[in-house]
Amino acid sequence: MLIRVQEQKLMDERLKYISAVQQSPLGSLQRQQALENLTEVVLRSRSMFRFEGGGAIAPIYREGLQALRTETLGLLDREINNYNGKPQWLTEVRSRALSRVLTQDYLQQLALVAQQYEPPTPQWQYAMQELVNGIMRSRKLRGRGKFSQDVYQEAINTMCLWLYRKINTYDATKGSFMTWINTRLSYILLETRQECHDPLVQQLNGKIIRTKYQLTAIVREGLVIDLNFWLKSVLRLSNPGQNFPNPILFLQIIVLILVQMYQVNPQQTEIILFELAQQTLSLSSKLVSIESETRSIETIAQSPSNPSLSEQIRHYLESDPQGLCQVHCRANPQATFQAIALKRLDGESWQQISDCFNIRVTALSNCFQRTLQRLIPHIRSYIQGELD
């Protein structure tokens, strides 16, 4: 009941400022003040850049919040007359403003800031949370494409877990951050789809999940056991004449450590328990393939002497050595083959690109495919020249 009252109060406040903006003359101080008030109300439920006013955080997050505030205010100013009375309209405006702030360069800066902190400090946890949220809301993650929604969502979850573990392996001198992420996601998607149709992998994953639930249950039971009981048990099982604890004592110490970790950071401990469950299996095709692919991505895709194919294609598109990439679709000079291809490399869907250039997906895709067919020999020749 209280939640509904709060939601209604927030909606009434939004409607008040929307009405004030619409009724104020263009360029007036009243309109500007109403726009600023509406912006602040819209940003109260933002998904990123939430921090205490006096908290010690890197400047990049305050800069991001200010940029989001500016973008949101600008969109509201230009489009307020299109307000359709639905709460989703304001949410979409905020979402679009956030995606404009979360440029490839800004996401790369978020990744570099996260690398400066040691896990699992609060600063590192905050930095990783902002980075993952930024990736998911930037509209620069590669689209679902031909994969099912279940496969895509599972791949996204796997990619986020991988990023928490591998963020320090990213090297900005060897490629853009989102290219690194999207390359990884593309491989995980193929792997996840295969797992969904592999009975052996499904059986192994089922065992992992059951083992993880069992480990979690043990740790949660440990939360209600008095610490004195643990200490007395450890002393009772200890043998002063032994250099190493016996197996039961060792396991008990491990459980005690996990219990204490769970009290401090349940989410991080759940990840550790999942990894422990994976290690209980003598063979897991998933783990083997992930580790081998990780070595491939980190040694090949980021190697200056052997750049990845996507990086070579990106370099060709950006440099456009022969000026062949400026062909544009329909009457929109902004919708060049270069701009469309770079967006596709960054993982944007055809629908996102269509919305950006205001061209129907079919027309956009057909124009792109025709130009691509003409440019394939030139791209191939360029890449072979780079490798020679």
What would you say this structure looks like, in words?
Helices cover 71% and strands 0% of the residues. The chain is an all-alpha fold. The protein has four domains: 1-101, no CATH class; 118-197, no CATH class; 200-297, no CATH class; 309-387, no CATH class. The radius of gyration is 26 Å and the shape is globular. The termini are far apart. Residues 282-307 have low confidence and may be disordered.
Top keywords for this entry?
388 residues; mainly alpha; 4 domains; 17 helices
Please provide the count of β strands. 0
Give the SSE order as H and E letters: HHHHHHHHHHHHHHHHH
Percent in strands:
under 5%
Unreliable runs, pLDDT <50, ≥5 residues? 282-307
Based on helices, strands and strand pairing, what is the structural class? mainly alpha
Number of helices: 17
User: End-to-end span in angstroms?
Assistant: 70 Å
* Shape type: globular
Q: What do the pLDDT scores average to? A: 77
Biggest sheet overview:
none
- Overall tally of structural domains: 4
Share of helix among residues? over 70%
What is the CA-atom radius of gyration, in angstroms? Answer: 26 Å
Q: What would you say about this model in short?
A:
With 388 residues, the chain is mostly helical. It has four domains: 1-101, no CATH class; 118-197, no CATH class; 200-297, no CATH class; 309-387, no CATH class. The protein is 71% helix and 0% strand.
